[in-house]
Amino acid sequence: MSSRAGKALREFIDNFPDDKLTYLPEQGTVFKNQDYRLDVQGLADEGKSYNVQVQINSGTKISTISRIVKSKKSATTVAMVLVPKDGSMEPDEIRKKLLLSTRHYTINAIKSSDIEKSEESHKNG
Hints:
Order of helices and strands: HHEEEHEH
């Protein structure tokens, strides 16, 4: 993920309004901008936690992540955390865990992007 995409992702996560992280629905988009969206993908952990994910929006103008969405060869999830339904996780902790999880997704997105470039060069070569 480019530094522009990473910076935009950090800013997106840092700017979630607290109320959007305090009262989560069981499923659906909670917050979004042009590049990313915060989604609840349903319940996990036998219904005890929300599966909260940050995903890339298809309308993003950031070219490096736009290619990931268009390729459809990799998931558009760039951060994920399980948030207990009991309200025990504060908004700041949710943000922190989402930011920490971006490292895993960034590595996978880069690997997928490198694979696609390699496949294209073999087709054209």
